[in-house]
Give the backbone structure.
Amino acid sequence: MNVAEQFRPHRVAVLALDGLLPFELGIPHRVFGRPKDARGRHLYEVLTCSVRPPGPVETDADFSVHVPHGPEALARADTVIVPASYELGPVFEEGRLTEELAAAFALIRPGTRLASICTGVYVLAAAGHLDGRPATTHWADAEHFQRMFPKVEVDADVLFIDDGDVLTSAGVAAGIDLCLHMVRRDFGAAVANDVARRMVVPPHRDGGQAQYIERPVPDPQFATTTAARAWALARLHEPIQLRDLAEQEAMSVRTFTRRFREEVGVSPGQWLAQQRVERARQLLESTDLSMDQVARSAGFGTAQSMRQHMQQALGVTPTAYRRTFRALAVSG
């Protein structure tokens, strides 16, 4: 059998529930509907389904949407995504699935990747997929979610969590971050970056949702850390110390660190490591540089240091990462 005959797009089923948010329902279609391989074939097939036979599903707006597939689409999916809904009923109030939802989830094959956007995480938790695992949701619902599902390890500070076969995101636009991350994980940074450019969004958003939690408005006379971040991105290949970043904003190290975390949601050191991992990914995918050369260009200094950071951030070694995405390029 030749490569063309073997090709099958990754099938994504988006579960539309009554009370859904139209914006969040559209995110998976916008992100996964774009990527194509070198032959122009769509890398994903996106299907919208309901827990009922095909028909209308109510939204939180003044219109309903016609959903063309019933729950049987879940049985054929490689990835199932549950967007948020404002009418989860006993799922939100009692932490249990309705009979319709339970029957629908029973159709999902073992090993299928599961993901949620915002309060869609309640459905995954009620179905038992998050016990003993890390998860996130909109920061405003985090405390309630934790009370409802005490076995889940809730982290309300991040935009999304990738726990292998189960991924969860914070509210609304964080669903874009999550879906772009899945594309990046499936087909590499170059494909995800192309999708992000066409959507006019950053391919990787800095920090976590801690930066969006309501706080007293800072005094406008104080500078931000934007210039320091731009300065660092232009010099990732160089050693960068915390004091170097603080000097770009004419702040003390202590003040800069506090302001940086308030704006970005993570420490300067964590942010810098994230940017260097992203740079390494791009170089591994798009160049033939040796591991030592990639490590130096990304600012890790040594291949061993790069290996440790990528293993921690991505769960794979640089060599395995390059091999995976070079193989995808060849098969396309």
